[in-house]
Amino acid sequence: MSRVVCEICSKMLGLLGFLLLVAGANCMYASNSAVIDLRQNNFDNLVLNNDHIWVVEFYAPWCGHCQQLTPEYDKAATALKGIVKVGAVNADEHKSLGSKYGIRGFPTIKIFGLDSKPEDYNGPRTAAGIVDAALNTISQKARRALGGKKAESDSKSKDSKDVIELTDENFDKIVLNSEDMWLVEFYAPWCGHCKNLAPEWAAAATELKGKVKLGALDATVNTLKASKYEIKGYPTIKYFTPGKKDADSVQEYDGGRTSGDIVNWALEKLAENIPAPEVIQITSDQSLKNACEDKPICVVSVLPHILDCQSNCRNGYLKTLNSLGEKYKKKMWGYVWQIHIY
């Protein structure tokens, strides 16, 4: 009797082991993983019916790319634990969920919780890329809560008006064939650091308007220029010197990422490359206009008549004006003078 019982137990244990093996084969992530197993019966309650940001992978157990992603996705989930929810759906098993969200290939990652529709994640399949995208979504949600969705959108559109959009087709004409100093950001639309830089870049472009030009090039679309300038990470900022440009005109930007950092760095570079302004005597309305029209500030000096101040005296005043021009040349002020008329 005991032998029969043992045989039955042995068969039951074998069947249980087989069932566990099948269950494990259908799930890409271990039971102790930070990745939450999402299914047809819990998806709406966990993902849709709360205020959390969710990163959700739709996968198939047999998919090789999904298997390659697993360790990176696991690391991202661990890093985001307590900050952003990270889940995974076996879309091969839960086909209705895959169909609902238009899943046509594996793995597909979507971010839920920002808008009524989930946002596709098209970034690199690395833990760092996934974390960056998740944190950027949180940042967007917080900014919307502060100022409202419409206000944020309007502000972004307004703030970016002074950033010049560059492409493979217009780059040489606009940047290389100009005498202006340029800072060019090479970015990727999915890059979290690029999205964080965008408002700072826009603010710097506005502050530097008329002095330094700031451009932005989508390196994922305009691959010719991205390849030419050896862009390997995003965002990458390149500096193009003022004046006639050649192969040596491009340099790396090594400053900070706030608008203040960008402005100060640009003005320092500008000061290194531009001569001190000429101190011009006002002889007509046109000479005054030419000297001052495009300057943020024009310093106008009235000097004593030659009868009251001999040449050495006047030259002393002009020397002082030239010294001021040299000292503050990065401000790009204009300097003019005229004789005191009785």
TrEMBL record:
Give the Pfam families listed for this entry.
Thioredoxin
Q: Secretion signal: which residues?
A: 1-27
E.C. numbers: 5.3.4.1
Q: Name the InterPro entries on file.
A: PDI_thioredoxin-like_dom, Thioredoxin-like_sf, Thioredoxin_CS, Thioredoxin_domain
Q: One GO MF term, please?
A: protein disulfide isomerase activity
What domain of life? Eukaryota
Q: What family name appears in the similarity comment?
A: Belongs to the protein disulfide isomerase family.
Protein name per Swiss-Prot or TrEMBL: protein disulfide-isomerase
The species this protein belongs to is Lasius platythorax
